[in-house]
Amino acid sequence: MSGRNGASDERGRLVVDPFDYRVTGHGAVIVLRGGRPVMTVGGRSAAKLVAALQRADDSQAQHLLARASGDYRRGNEHG
Length: 79
What we know:
- The chain contains four helices and three strands.
- It is of the alpha+beta class and about 80 residues long.
- A hairpin with a 2-residue loop joins strand 2 and strand 3.
- The longest helix is centred in the middle third of the chain and has 13 residues, at about 45-55.
- The relative contact order is 0.20.
């Protein structure tokens, strides 16, 4: 299953072990996986991420959070 911009989750990892997020009072986005924080996004990047997450469906949100966490840059989505 291919997602936006060629992103894929062929092994279903984003379904089995999904990301979650929390927006702080200061506007930062804390990206969580398995209930543990994996990254904090701040500033303009956080504002853009929140706006994109509000428009996204569940699958798109998982891909956005995976990209924000850096998993797609390092290839960890296959690990």
